[in-house]
Amino acid sequence: MADTAEFDIVVAGGGHNSLITAAYLAKAGLSCLVLEGQKAVGGNTATDEVTLPGFRHDTCSTAHNLIQASPILRDGELPLGDYGLDYILPDPVVHMPFDDGTSITQWRDIERTAAEFARFSESDAASYKRFIAEYQAVAPIFSAASYTPIGFGPSLAERLAEHPDGAIWQKRIALSAWDIIRGTFEHERVRAFLLWMAMMTMVPPEQAMSGRLAYSLVAGRQRWSWTLPRGGSAALPDALTGYIEANGGAIRTNSWVKRLIVENGRCVGVECADGSVHRARRAVVSTIHVKDLLGMASDEAWPGAFREAVDSWQSGIAMFAAHYASTVPLEFEVGGETLRPSAVGVMPSVDRALQVGSDVARGRVNTDDPPLLVMCSTSADPSRAPDGCHTVKVVGFHPYDLAEGADRWDALKEDVALANLRQLQRFSPALTDETILGRHVKSPLDLERLNPHNWHGSCHGGAQIPAQAGGLRPVAGWAQHRMPIEGLYQTGATTHPGGSVSGGPGRNAAMVLLSDLGMPFPAG
Predict the structure, then answer these.
(1) Angle 472-476-477 (CA atoms, 0-180°, nearest 5)?
(2) Closest to 93 measured CA to CA, from 185, 216, 228, 192
């Protein structure tokens, strides 16, 4: 390709956030080129036939809960439904079986969910309804803060200060999720269920400043279920691709960005692994993980404070995923009824929930009674597998850095996958070895190999700890999506508000870039 600027904006990486940035920029009238190294866009919102032909597995994200409350979909800022995006809200939401034969099922009807808790504790049932109502009253405040770039509006603290219960919520979010759950609910089964739910963004529930997660994750599931994009997670990037191309943009896959082109202190384009050069007339947007971004320009391009903060970046809990093609769904007998949920949680006890964080901190792989997140999306969306067949994804929670080194995962992963499968089979015996037609295992090391943005096996960009949140994500002074190199903007999970499928980083980056160009943000 000639060394000329064909587009206003060049976007390095095709994850859902960078696609959302490009979609808003295209809506504003800018021409965008998105470069993606994989064979298809999507990043961690990808769907692929990793086991057998016809079995469509979500290789990372499955639930698209957070984006449901975003202005992107809620207010129709991007009309992605016109490009094929459709969501399923399964009922039941999630089912959690226990060793003693009891279970908790979350249903979309809050009264029905509360009745599940009441079998263990009437007090906990009442507390649950109050718990959800209290969060729903302030959820718009948290959402507004998430979908506002740092410094572009009131901070979360300022927004809460104007709310009658703001002081209470300031305290709650400073506590750990375990502090909140322990102080609100009394029964160990209820506590285990809620601790599992609070851990679904890979944050240890005993971590300080995780208090909001005790509320937000279970409330989000209560409101939106375990939201599934029809056809697979890739339906979101596919719809964004359609919108971008319809508005004059271009998507090029199999194009790994390897170098930023910096001239006179300004980023003016990128160079790909095949030697092709793509220059931008106005700006470059990156969704490259910040740990890799540093190596794409000279050391002199990055201030010392920026480098130091990135050097100390923490990954947090890593995911371990095993995908199965099966002839049966997940089935559970409850009160004479057969449940076939799309989402299943396994959390043996409160103690086991609180052990995950310490195991990760010590680099210890613990397969003793493992906690699990299990998805059988085909129970709600049969289009993902051949007739009568199903996909099953089993997710465990482990460290990337092992005491013997991360390379040790290659020797351990089959044993870990088997331990997780056996744990699931204890509760859903219909899923036998004979009903499994194919399998595909991804350790934390494999996830990093699959997608460089999964640095150290983190599919959320890195730990959502106080030192890597809000105005400190990715680095204090550079949390407004503007990078130290002029003309370079950053989006993706390493920026505010962080990981998961929210679209927040993508929307926020577009807002900042358009402001810098003196252009209005196309919200309407």
Answers:
(1) 135
(2) 228
**Helices 504-516 and 16-27, packing angle to 10 deg:** 40
Of the CA atoms within 13 Å of residue 224, those in its CB half-sphere come to 21
122-133 pLDDT tens trace: 999 999 999 999
Tell me 300's DSSP state: G
Answer whether the bond into residue 371 is a cis peptide, omega within 30°.
no
- Residues 6 or more apart whose Cβ sits within 8 Å of residue 288: 12, 13, 257, 296, 452, 453, 492
Determine the number of helices (DSSP H) and then strands (DSSP E) in the chain: 16, 20
Q: Give the domain ranges of the chain.
A: 5-46+232-313+458-516, 316-457
Q: Return the structure tokens found at 459.
A: 């599919």
Number of C-beta neighbours around residue 348 at 10 A: 18
pTM for the full predicted model: 0.94
Give the count of alpha carbons within 13 A of 118, CB side only: 10
Domain 5-46+232-313+458-516 sits in CATH at: 3.50.50.60
Give the model confidence (pLDDT) of 328-343 as tens digits: 999 999 988 999 999 9
How far is the C-alpha of 146 from the C-alpha of 138, rounded, in Å?
Answer: 13
Q: Distance between alpha carbon 313 and the CA centroid of its chain, in Å?
A: 18
